[in-house]
# Entry
Amino acid sequence: MRNAVVEVLDVTKTYPGGGARALDGVSVAFAAGTFCAVMGPSGSGKSTLLHCAAGLDRPDTGRVVLAGEEIGTLREPRLTQVRRRRVGFVFQSYHLMDSLSVWHNVLLPQRLAGVRPDRGWAKDVIRRVGLAGREDDRPARLSGGQRQRVALARALAGRPEVIFADEPTGALDLATGREVLQLLREAVDGLGATIVMVTHDPAAAAWADRVVFLADGRVAGELAAPTADLVAARMTAVSAR
Ligand SMILES: Nc1ncnc2c1ncn2[C@@H]1O[C@H](COP(=O)(O)OP(=O)(O)OP(=O)(O)O)[C@@H](O)[C@H]1O
# Structure
């Protein structure tokens, strides 16, 4: 794929005592400046793929290339260093530090990575996600949707090559979830971000440019220009296999 930011090449992964392969020869690439959703039945390997692609875990075999660097075989602490500098994360449960203000949460990954935070840009992304004026608040004072906006600002603040989002709307009501998806879309269209999102929700996947389907640890097809109906139909077919 041209302009691939992340390439996963023939990756396998089995968990100790886990029985069948969680990933069984998966090859997939994610292009710069695009929004891709990963879907599949429960246990199909979505989280495992995301963890391997993001350098949170290492594959047993195969390659993972992130922005031209082979990370599948990197060991700690180099792997953590690459992850901190090049990858942003948005999790279902936000993973914010309650003891830190919004502002310090947003800057934390850059601090941990040992890079000087770009404060002007951090201010800009906080404004873009609709949290201008809330910089000094603690996450505990914010709603779920606002917390996820902080997590998105935190992910964007370090200008990572790619942002991985794991069920980012899973804990939110429909309307709030839609607002977060719109912000993810705007991050791609307006800021040139690259986003890979795991989701169970066809309506969420429809915000992406492309959907990759997994089943039994393998790629089971993909869909360009998805709509919620097309995604739901594909999911039914994939689940029935
Ligand atoms: N830490 C682990 N230890 C053992 N087995 C695991 C572990 N994590 C995942 N697995 C197994 O690997 C397979 C793939 O799991 P994975 O969590 O990647 O799937 P998923 O598609 O993300 O599922 P879900 O939609 O339920 O989150 C499953 O069979 C699961 O039971």
